[in-house]
Design goal:
The chain contains eight helices and five strands. The chain is of the alpha+beta class. The chain has a five-stranded mixed β-barrel.
């Protein structure tokens, strides 16, 4: 018997691609969109504190987390339980966790890293030098002098931050701070 002759695949032999009503349409229409964050919060025992990094043990796994100095100074003593809200940044060379004491700090960090030219280190420096309320007030008043005082922030970067964050930090503040900062701005303009 002769071996079976092989021939090239014809159109009828190839699998059909999903059309406009296929998988991608189904995904966009029916599958709910999920946030990209993988690790949103960690609770566990604080093992070590080395500024600006902490080591947190949760379920037998030690996590190295970079934190702003405002969070670092408010952490309990080593060995005590702690909860940090986290942001996972995935790069091609590393997976880096950034931790924050409050959700407002994390939201401000996420808004800062969306600005072109501002990386995670610069965002941590801003949050280490200013609280979220002070940053929001500086943005509202367009006060670049306050941002220039933060190490690593020059005049051009400060002006870019003010321009990009204008009107975006109000929703990151707690309700009681929103009312207070608006009154302070009004008093500063009138008085």
């Amino acid at each position: 018997s002769q071996p079976r002759r092989r021939r090239r695949a014809r159109l009828r032999d190839l699998p059909r691609a999903w059309g406009a009503t296929g998988w991608f349409f189904y995904q966009r229409t029916f599958v709910p969109e999920r946030p990209l964050a993988v690790i949103g919060r960690l609770s566990g025992k604080l093992v070590a504190k080395n500024p600006p990094q902490v080591l947190l043990e949760a379920a037998g796994v030690g996590y190295e987390i970079d934190v702003p100095m405002s969070t670092f100074f408010n952490l309990p003593a080593t060995g005590d339980p702690v909860t940090l809200h986290t942001h996972l940044m995935v790069r091609e060379d590393a997976h880096v966790l950034y931790g924050f004491a409050t959700l407002e700090e994390r939201a401000a960090f996420r808004k800062l890293i969306r600005i072109s030219g501002v990386g995670a280190r610069t965002a941590l420096a801003v949050l280490s030098g200013l609280s979220v309320a002070e940053l929001a007030q500086a943005v509202t008043l367009q006060d670049s002098a306050r941002l220039v005082k933060v190490p690593g922030i020059g005049k051009k970067t400060a002006e870019r931050l003010l321009l990009e964050l204008k009107g975006k930090l109000v929703d990151t503040l707690p309700a009681d701070t929103k009312a207070g900062s608006g009154n302070d701005v009004l008093n500063a303009l009138v008085g």
